[in-house]
Design goal:
Helices cover 40% and strands 18% of the residues. It is α/β, with parallel strands linked by helices. It has a seven-stranded parallel beta sheet with strand order 3-2-1-4-5-6-11, with helices on both faces. The chain has a two-stranded parallel ribbon with strand order 7-10. A two-stranded parallel ribbon has the order 8-13. Strand 1, helix 1 and strand 2 form a beta-alpha-beta unit. The chain is globular and about 55 Å long. The model has no long low-confidence stretch (mean pLDDT 96). Bound molecules: uridine-diphosphate-N-acetylglucosamine (UD1). The site of uridine-diphosphate-N-acetylglucosamine has 18 residues, from helix 6 and strand 8.
Length: 312
């Protein structure tokens, strides 16, 4: 069984990834600055003797280096990030600091400690407005905001480390991730977490635009499994992989699916489209299927159901 280090372990995706690794018998050291991650997200993992947590900021390279040198992981799963697109527009400095300098720190620490495999949390945000659907890994990369630019820079740094120092780099481009423990409390949280909070309290949801915009919604447990597979896999090409379902759902279609779970909810309100909004997003999942043997398994209906059950 493997010995893995996860950065950003107390975040939404990190907490599901550690749970998946532990269930599969791996040993994990998780680090997190707790800037946005929550220790509470790790409640169940902390019961497991194979898990240890340390509060470490990836910007503190010397502490990270000492920790990695002492622990000697086989793989680093680098999930720690500045995650909010809108905040990245308001505070580009912090976004680039965490996502670019932080990722460089992780790459350099890995190199110094002879960790040869690294999995990186990238994002569909690096594609920007797609020219055609579905978006494949060969599509044009044209991020529209500092967050997307920083994720593209992160991929570029890590892939250069891969080529230069012979490291195995796997960049996973997540599409719209949802599921239990996603924080619904900011107006810029994922749409599913916001809609479910509103549905739960009987409030009407607000649709930005006419609701015909589409997204490729992927359940967080599928993403956690993709992270584990990418970490475990001995041989697969270095590079970037879409982590998506290949299914396009409109926001109106999402509301119908939520209605199926809750019974009839109040009629949604409609508001102006968000500026700079992407109208359609859907990933091409074939490369991950071919080289990682990864396919999303959770339908939107099943994922919504699990999210509602787990949050109640
Ligand atoms: C998502 C990601 C972002 C990533 C981007 C591109 C989240 C939270 N954000 O942004 O990190 O960079 O994809 O891949 O996952 N909506 C409503 N009503 C609401 C909230 C949202 O109608 O109350 C609509 C939005 O206008 C949008 C859609 O729902 O059309 C999805 O919004 P959101 O969940 O914020 O994700 P993206 O904007 O796609």
């Amino acid at each position: 069984m493997g010995k893995y280090l996860i950065t950003g372990v107390a975040g939404f995706i990190g907490s599901h990834t550690v749970a998946n690794l532990l269930v599969n018998g791996h040993q994990v050291l998780g680090v997190d600055s707790l800037r946005t991650g929550k220790i509470d997200n790790l409640k169940s993992s902390q019961q497991d003797a194979n898990f240890r947590f340390e509060q470490i900021d990836i910007l503190n390279r010397s502490l990270l280096q000492a920790t990695v040198t002492a622990y000697k992981p086989e793989v680093i799963i680098h999930l720690a990030a500045f995650v909010n697109v809108v905040e990245s527009v308001e505070n580009p400095d912090l976004n680039f600091s965490i996502n670019v300098n932080g990722t460089h720190n992780v790459a350099e620490v890995a190199r110094q400690s002879n960790v040869t495999r690294l999995v990186f949390a990238s994002s569909a945000a690096i594609y920007g407005e797609p020219q055609s659907i579905p978006v494949s890994e060969e599509s044009t990369l044209k991020p529209e905001n500092p967050y997307g630019a920083s994720k593209l820079a992160g991929e570029s740094i890590l892939l250069a480390y891969g080529r230069c120092y012979g490291m195995q780099i796997r960049c996973l481009r997540y599409f719209n991730v949802y599921g239990p423990r996603q924080n619904p409390d900011s107006p810029y949280s994922g749409v599913i977490s916001i809609f479910l909070r509103q549905a739960n309290s009987g409030e009407a949801v607000t649709v930005y635009g006419d609701g015909s915009q589409t997204r490729d919604f992927i359940f967080v447990e599928d993403v956690a499994r993709a992270n584990r597979i990418a970490a475990e896999k001995e041989s697969c090409p270095c590079g970037s992989y879409n982590i998506c379902t290949g299914q396009e759902h409109s926001i109106l279609n999402l509301i119908d699916s939520i209605n199926m779970e809750y019974g009839e909810l109040p009629q949604p309100g409609f508001s102006h489209p968000r500026p700079g909004e992407t109208m359609r997003s859907c990933g091409q999942p074939d490369k991950a299927a071919k080289f990682l043997d990864f396919q999303a398994e959770t339908t939107l209906a099943k994922g919504l159901h699990k999210t509602i059950i787990d949050s109640s």
